[in-house]
Each structure stands twice: as structure tokens, then as C-alpha cells.
Amino acid sequence: MCNSNYIVNEYNNTLVITLGMTTSTYTLPFGNYTASTFITMLKTFLPVVAGWTITLNSTTNAFTFANSSSNFTFRASTCDYIIGFSGEVSSTANTLTMPRSCNFLPIPRFIIHCNVLNDGIILSTNSTLGASDVLASIPNVAKNNGQIVYENNSSEFLVKSPNVGNLVISITDDNNRLINFNGISSYFVLRFNIFRRSIQRPMRFENLVELINRVPIPEEEPEPVSEEI
Question: Please, what sign has the CA dihedral across residues 37, 42, 48, 54?
């Protein structure tokens, strides 16, 4: 499958800032960013008249935000781990350096879930996405828009359900959030080993011949004959 999901997506694209007495929530556009392109994008959202400056320390990879007019606070935001903070952080002397480095790494692994495994692995009867229906955990070692090839030769799962009408395959991150691959197709091959408690023995040859001889052979209908006049 392709590593085509966005680093900034519907789960981590809000930023809440209190500047002076005003609290604003910014919704960031989806996409894959580097530190420099992220700074460029943020500058289009933060009011220029408020005097914002954003820099990146090339040694620590930490953002520093500064405002020329007022102190400010970064409130709880979904993009906190990307920018490099958690909870709430406030500026001192109108300047705030993030306590952690910025994070523009892709999702570290993809978790593949299959609904029928809830009936096979006796870990949980919970029908929601969770550990009880994990089919595979695939490390994401591809670059953005790179292809991940994974073959699992080690694990087998017991499915006890006597009637499986359909399979639902779901792919999530470690937080069980569905991943949007942005329309890029993925391909999977699933192998099922079927075990039966007993197998009916085949009929003896002479009994098979006797059965065939008992079946009446239909008579052939005569072909129509055309006469010339």
C-alpha cells in the first residue's frame, strides 16, 4: 500500500492561540509539510498586523514564536505534537520557544483490522476497532507517497465463526483512527486454511457403478424428417 496519507489531516489540524484578550482557533489545510513550508503556511493564517515572527532552531528543531505587541498562549490544540508542545504553553516577554522539537514524520505504522477476528481470537468481544481484531501491524518505512510492501509469514488467526458472509478490512493508526489514503489503491492477499472435523469418505467404486446403472437413461427423441413435395 502507498504512504499517501497527509501528515496534517482531519485529526491534527487545529491551532488555538490566545493573544492578549482574544482567543482564535485556526484550521490548518491538509498536506505534507516540512518545517519551512509549515512556517510559510502559518504566516498566511496568523494576522500580519499582529506582528508574528516564526523561526526554527536548526540545532534543536524547535520553533520559536514571537509577537511584537502582546504576550500569548498556545491552548490545547490537535496539532500540538507537530509544533512541539502539549497542553498549554505561554510566552515570556512576547516570545515562546517550544519545549519539544517539531514533528513532521509520517505515521510510524499502519494497523490492519479484520472484523471476523473478533470471533476467533478470544481477547475481547468488543466489535469496535481495537486489539482484538488486529490482523497485522505494518511498519511505515516508506517516504511520503512511497510504496510499502509487507508479507506476513509468521502469524495465523483462528476464526471460529461457522458462517462468514463478508470481511471488513480497516486500516488505522495506533490511536485506532481510520487513515485516509487520498484515493490511492492498496492490494491485499489473504489466505485461509480450512480445517474440517471429519471428511466424508468417497463411495466405493462398485457402489458408484451400481448407482449409475440405476439411473434411467432418457430416450432420444427422433429427429424430424423433412419431405420434398
Answer: negative
Strands 72-74 and 63-67: unpaired
pTM for the structure as a whole: 0.71
SS3 of residue 43 by DSSP:
helix
Give the three cell numbers for residue 105: 514524520
| CA neighbor of 109 nearest in space, from 23, 5, 226 | 5
| Alpha-helix runs per DSSP H in 73-226 | 80-83, 205-214
Contacts of 85 (CB under 8 A, 6+ apart): 74, 98, 99, 100
Closest of 137, 133, 129 to residue 158, by C-alpha: 133
For residue 17, give the H/E element and its range: strand 14-19
pLDDT tens-digit readout, 74-99: 999 999 999 999 999 999 999 999 99
The answer to whether the CB of 179 falls within 8 A of the CB of 9 is: no
Q: Strands, E, within 62-141: which ranges?
A: 63-67, 72-74, 89-90, 95-97, 109-114, 134-139
Question: Under 8 Å CB-to-CB from 177, ≥6 apart: which residues?
Answer: 11
Which residues are CB-neighbours of 186 under 8 A, at least 6 positions away?
1, 2, 171
